[in-house]
């Protein structure tokens, strides 16, 4: 029976898989290209327009004859109360876990003494000339302090228990043949089940665990149907974990923990016997041999059965373990992720704009920041981007879950210019493409208006980003 290690919180079932148009209708003759150093600026109009507000009259050239109006908001308190009641069903932590410093200078006197004692005992224990763990030679430099602190915190700074844990881990690594495992070809069948993608707001690499993939009977049977396949799954799990850990930085003050996102949508649940067996084996190895590698555990698309299960085991979890857990139901999952991860780092399937693993829109990557704007119920939100040079402007935009109308329009600054409807107002439903990607060739100075009309009683979140490219005839 494995000794419990609350410092590396990992939930029971489901299995813990730790460480995934160009529109140019203007007829204006292109002017000589302006200097590229002239800026493109943006202005976000935060005026809320009522859904039933009469449409402003346009002059023959398409320019609006009145400005956006500011009006009193309709009641939304009832809807907010309903949303709050729904969210209250999700477990809430009264204390949020704050990761401790791994700098020796930040330790208390007693913690520093324990670290020094552990190093001294480990020096006496190690018989081989050089022993490495996670790619770091022990007792060679200050990275050792960071690693030993993980074991000490897993055992509440009890030196002898920490030493036993380290020695057991080193022996297990030999028996499991970890170094050879790193080069083993275990296939790519589970690449969609667990994958690393982006970084949290605090710089932690993010690991996505997608349990719904196991609804695929062929994949499930191939992974768990007999002991040999479960052992292969276990080796794949450990291999993935080892490769992920070796990309971390064990120098003091650097990031050496992982942010985990556990997607429980369509998860098979705890009734699958083979799943429970594989989970128990994996949990035992993780608890005993990989302490303090989780910065935060976020569970999204949480189903009712998992909440019931968590309620049963909650009394047996330490406050430290529970403080690393965050739960969110389906409606709150994107907002919960955005609290910890910037939208440009979140994959499209989870509400963000990150498409780095495909060729959907090569103009943007995770390094291009996103602007977030709240769209209140029954209001209209317009983003105004002033353009001061001839260029091609490209943008992408989304509202999570849509249920809004979207339009795009370019209005030239010249009084005799004509407005260009790039995208007429179009109703966007949840079944539409999650992200709109567009471009427009700007041959005269003016403003680009991106408008989202929210007719629902739900607050929405508008995400967008843009960049300019050189103008070409």
Automatic annotation (TrEMBL):
Annotated source species: Cicer arietinum
Location within or outside the cell: Cytoplasm; Membrane
SUPFAM superfamilies from the UniProt entry: CRAL/TRIO domain, CRAL/TRIO N-terminal domain
Pfam families tied to this protein: CRAL_TRIO (PF00650), CRAL_TRIO_N (PF03765), GOLD_PATL1_C (PF25099)
Domain of life: Eukaryota
Basic and acidic residues composition bias: residue spans: 32-48
Region of interest (Disordered), residue spans: 1-112
Domain GOLD as annotated: residue spans: 363-468
Protein keywords: Cell cycle, Cell division, Cytoplasm, Lipid-binding, Membrane, Transport
Gene: LOC101511465
Topology within the bilayer: Peripheral membrane protein
Annotated GO biological process: cell division; cellular response to auxin stimulus; protein localization involved in auxin polar transport
Entry-linked InterPro entries: CRAL-TRIO_dom, CRAL-TRIO_dom_sf, CRAL/TRIO_N_dom, CRAL/TRIO_N_dom_sf, GOLD_dom, PATL, PATL1-6_C_GOLD
Main location: cytoplasm
Gene Ontology CC entries for this record: cytoplasm; membrane
Name the record gives this protein: Patellin-3-like
One GO MF term attached to the UniProt entry: lipid binding
CDD domains: SEC14 (cd00170)
Residue intervals of the CRAL-TRIO domain: 183-352
Family: Belongs to the patellin family.
PROSITE patterns with a match to the protein in the record: CRAL_TRIO (PS50191), GOLD (PS50866)
